[in-house]
Write a structure and sequence with these properties.
The protein has 292 residues and is mainly α. The protein has 13 helices and two strands; from the N terminus they run H-H-H-H-H-H-H-H-H-E-E-H-H-H-H.
């Protein structure tokens, strides 16, 4: 019976893993010599020998992340990319083993791939979110908290251990609690509707939008007519105090007009009363008309 495509990939991955285990490891002196030949002379054969010796490290790292629902073969490929990045950046003069240096790059490449592909929604965009994504389940398992709902004690424990906020812990727990769901997935047995039919549209309807624009224009026209009934000084104070995004202080207006801030307050109160009377003459009393 022929193997399925998935089984073929799994078989190929296991065969690849066995091959990597047969490749001999390098000593510290060999690593340094090969790294220098690649870094200084551009010797691609030295690069090949250096990276090939640590393909087993890629396989081992990929196996640690096999429970995230992504094919191990893809994790190995991404780990190999990280291994090549490590070889390109490695400085043999720093006195660090290449295997130690490469492990960080391999793990980073695999984790980034998981974050990009675990969900259609970007899961970890900040350092705290990435830390939570890869450690939340492990910490919950440590204290035997396997329930669907995250308890307050567990939330506090994880936040303290990972040095993040409890709100971030709760948000990540919600993201990890269920798989992605298509908005086109049918609801119910008959499948007469789908999930997107249940989404509420928060935008105004076209007729309400037109009415809103007309009301805004009318209000602007009424205010302009009312302001025209004020004196120049009253208009200046009302515009500065009431119609600008950041109203100026009574004291600064007093300095500008050469009067005390108390006098500015009195002029403002009088101008507001004038505006109220003018607007009542223009549009009537909304309370008496039952509009409010």
């Amino acid at each position: 019976m022929p193997l399925s495509e998935t089984e073929e990939f799994q078989t190929a991955t296991r065969s690849y893993a066995r091959e990597t285990m047969r490749i001999p490891m390098l000593g510290a002196e060999d690593e340094t010599m090969l790294a220098r030949r690649w870094r200084v002379d551009g010797d691609e054969r030295a690069l090949h020998t250096l990276t090939r010796a640590y393909l087993r490290l890629v396989v081992a790292m990929a196996s640690r992340f096999r429970n995230y629902g992504l094919p191990t073969s893809e994790l190995v490929q991404e780990g190999n990319v990280g291994l090549m990045q490590a070889a390109a950046r490695f400085d043999p003069e720093r006195g660090v083993r290449f295997s130690t240096y490469a492990a960080w790059w391999i793990r980073a490449a695999i984790q980034d791939y998981i974050l990009r592909n675990w969900s259609i929604v970007r899961t970890g965009t900040t350092s705290a979110q990435k830390t939570l994504f890869f450690n939340l389940r492990r910490l919950r398992a440590r204290i035997n908290d396997t329930g669907e709902i995250l308890s307050g004690e567990t939330r506090a424990f994880v936040a303290r251990k990972l040095k993040v906020s409890e709100a971030e812990v709760e948000a990540m727990a919600g993201r990890l609690s269920g798989p992605d769901r298509s908005l086109n997935a049918p609801i119910g047995e008959d499948g007469a509707s789908d999930w997107q039919d249940q989404l509420a549209d928060d935008h105004m309807t076209p007729d309400n939008e037109i009415m809103e624009r007309r009301d805004d224009a009318a209000r602007a026209r009424w205010v302009a007519q009312a302001l025209s009934k004020l004196s120049e000084r009253e208009r200046l104070i009302i515009r500065a105090r009431r119609l600008e995004d950041e109203g100026v202080t009574l004291e600064s207006l007093g300095v500008r007009l050469g009067v005390s801030k108390e006098r500015v307050r009195q002029i403002e109160a009088g101008a507001m009363e004038k505006l109220r009377r003018v607007l009542l003459d223009l549009v009537g009393d909304p309370v008496a008309a039952g509009l409010i």
